[in-house]
Design brief:
This protein has 5 helices and 2 strands. The protein is mainly alpha-helical. It has one domain.
Length: about 120
Amino acid sequence: MDNQEGNNGPIHQSQGMDPKTVAMIAYLTFIGTIIAIVVNNNNKDEFASFHIRQALGLVLCMVVLQVLWLIPFLGWIAFPIVALIVFILWIIGFMAALNGQEKVVPILGEKFQEWFSGI
């Protein structure tokens, strides 16, 4: 991987799809995360892998959130609050990918990097 410094931060280059594009795709639904994992698997790039781990963690948070929704009353009250928090975290992660930054999402971002280190 050849990293060069550009006007807006590091530019990541690889022989396959642009790592920045792969990172952004990872945040676009669960299917996007799967596509990003497959594309990055052929020619691993650390920048893309970083954002795939962040996006996968957020997707799994949404799965847990869907289970929370099934709990009467408590789940119904907590769902909108937690959904808003996860959405804000998603925006932070997506904007970091868009800007070419390796910025962990608040709260669980460090754990996502640890839990999904194999990606």
